[in-house]
Design a protein that fits this description.
This protein is of the alpha/beta class. Helices cover 41% and strands 17% of the residues. The structure holds nicotinamide-adenine-dinucleotide.
Length: 339
Amino acid sequence: MKKILVTGGAGYIGSHTIIDLIESGHQVVSVDNFINSNAQSYDRITEITGQTIQQYAIDLCDRQKLEQVFRENDFSSVIHFAALKSVGDSVSDPLHYYHNNLLGLINLLYLQKQYQVHHLIFSSSCSVYGNAESLPVTERTPLKEAESPYAQTKQVCEQIIFDFLKVNPTFKSVILRYFNPAGAHSSNLMGESPHNIANNLVPIITETAMGKRDALSVFGSDYPTRDGTCVRDYIHIMDLAAAHTGSVQFLLDNKARDAGTIINLGSGTGSTVLEVIHAFEKVSGNKLNYSLTNRRPGDVVAVYADYTKANKLIGWTPQRNLDDIMLSAWRWEQKRSAT
Ligand SMILES: NC(=O)c1ccc[n+]([C@@H]2O[C@H](COP(=O)([O-])OP(=O)(O)OC[C@H]3O[C@@H](n4cnc5c(N)ncnc54)[C@H](O)[C@@H]3O)[C@@H](O)[C@H]2O)c1
């Protein structure tokens, strides 16, 4: 059986996806330089699945080293998660973001071409829609000017893939635009545990409840939304993982009509920051210490997905709701804080 190369497999979405891939019968190889993760992720995958992960501690920006991975393995597909993902950091250090996120993809595509690995699943983001004109966002919603260098790297990466596909007609790609992945695996053995400081709302909520942070700042309470706080679409990490397995299968079964297929992955429901906080308070029984503060540069007002296309093409429907996300995230936070 040909293997699947997962880049960024020690990271949050990559590690959960590897579990789903293994449980669906695939063989996986991971490449990760642990810039925002550590090798414990692999131990947790082994604990959950009973399988040891073949992995390389390599920076994707090092094409020579990356070539070793392609030389030593026979891949059917690549799932490319590895990227830097903090909107705020990308504003303060744009060159690091452009270098890492663009060069990683370019090196992969060179090697996919050289070694004839025809399928690429790419992690994109709803941030490419910027302040979308209409909601819910479909894949046809026009892209707006990127609000941050991070979002810009995703727009440019998508463009690089489409340009590559134009001149390499035997290659196919699925570009997955995630909305807000959150929550943890049901075993409580794995969840979001960033190496760098957490930037996403859900881990910030659980870290605050755990006492790791004094208080949570809600950035902006004067947006034109139902309670003045930003609206986002939260999608459970295991639902997201399943969509990757579905996308790989879609390509392996030759079901893709277009060279590049863009798919939104969200729950279809928008939640305000205050609604997420209240969902947490409900499922955990804890009161959260939070305060309303000024708007933050780079944030869009509201964004949530229409996932009809994901349902039609890869048969995907989210199975879990916001309460499931908050409960699993809270259990994981308690578990990781105790170890
Ligand atoms: N988590 C989100 O909210 C979110 C939302 C939309 C899109 N995405 C995208 O999904 C992908 C995965 O996100 P995540 O939340 O799992 O992030 P993560 O930081 O947990 O995982 C990314 C992994 O890639 C690795 N990595 C980064 N650059 C690398 C390089 N040059 N070489 C080798 N390894 C490298 C990191 O060490 C990390 O383990 C990213 O492309 C991200 O931009 C994430």
